[in-house]
Design brief:
By secondary structure, the chain is of the alpha+beta class. Helices cover 32% and strands 41% of the residues. It has three helices and eleven strands; from the N terminus they run ααββββββββαβββ. The strands form three sheets. It has a five-stranded antiparallel beta sheet. A three-stranded antiparallel beta sheet has the order 1-2-6, with no helix packed on it. The chain is rod-shaped, with a radius of gyration of 33 Å.
Length: 182
């Protein structure tokens, strides 16, 4: 019986390398968990950067042409913009300012705008900055006009850009406000 117990004790004795291998396996497990966590963080960051890279940002800015400065809508972002609408603030009693443009702009694309001021007594067409300035100086448009551009990105997110068209010292300015999700 003692011989059997001696063999059993000898079989369960561990050497130094047995302990080293257990420690190596445990350390490998911790490194694997750390690496998985870091890889997940990189994935989340890459998805976030892709969203930012594909975000459209629309604004209204003048374009210089041989016949003068023309109002235009420009996508300064890289992603396409869909379902674009431009709303102007109050332009007067029973008057409405309408912007004619396509509903889609690719990244870094611009498109000249055509404006129509609809008043009860007549409709005024505006093709150039000189036309807009003339309507402001004649009192048909206010000197400061808030604008809101709403549009969708390729990811389906709805965005809004607020701006103002301001007439000061014989010059027409476009002041960029804020770009945000709608």
């Amino acid at each position: 019986m003692l011989a059997v117990l001696d063999r059993l004790v000898a079989a369960h004795q561990r050497g130094l390398w047995d302990y080293v291998s257990v420690i190596a396996i445990v350390l490998t497990l911790f490194v694997l968990i750390w690496y998985t966590n870091e890889t997940y963080k990189l994935r989340v960051a890459a998805v976030g950067q892709l969203d930012v890279a594909m975000t459209p940002i629309l604004m209204i800015a003048p374009v210089q042409e041989p016949k003068g400065a023309l109002p235009a809508i420009r996508n300064v972002g890289n992603g396409p913009a869909f379902n674009i609408s431009i709303e102007a603030g109050k332009v007067g009693e029973a008057a409405k300012l309408t912007f004619f443009h396509s509903g889609v702009l690719a990244g870094n694309e611009l498109q000249v705008l055509h404006l129509t001021l609809q008043q009860p007594e007549r409709e005024r067409q505006m093709f150039t900055h000189d036309d807009i300035v003339a309507n402001i100086t004649q009192g048909h448009l206010p000197p400061t006009l808030p604008l809101t551009i709403t549009y969708n990105g390729a990811n389906g997110q709805r965005y809004a850009t607020t701006m103002a068209m301001e007439f000061r010292s014989e010059l027409l300015f476009y002041r960029f406000g804020k770009h945000a999700t709608a």
